[in-house]
Amino acid sequence: SPKSLKRTQEAFENMLSAASQGQGVHPKLGQILKRTFDQVEKVGGDIGKEKRRQTMPR
């Protein structure tokens, strides 16, 4: 739903903001963020591959 997507976007922006801080984050939070971002990159990469596959002419 649009409301759920908005909350997810806000949470993701908060995570990116925390990860971008000059002084860094607590090591445990850093580990959690790394695992989360690795998973997001994997899913996003899979979606990107599928989109490219669908748009490639045969």
Main traits of this protein?
single chain; 58 residues; mainly alpha; 2 helices; elongated
Describe this structure in words.
This protein has 58 residues and is mainly alpha-helical. The chain has one domain. It is built from 2 helices and no strands. The protein has helices at residues 2-19, 27-55.
The biggest beta sheet reads: none
Number of domains: 1
Low-confidence runs: none
Radius of gyration: 15 Å
Structural class: mainly alpha
Mean pLDDT: 89
Q: Count of helices?
A: 2
Based on Cα principal axes, name the global outline: elongated
The amount of helix comes to over 70%
Helix-strand topology string: HH
Strand proportion, as a percent range, falls in: under 5%
Question: Ends: how far apart?
Answer: 34 Å
Number of strands: 0
In short:
The chain is mostly helical and 58 residues long.
SSE arrangement:
Elements: H1 2-19, H2 27-55
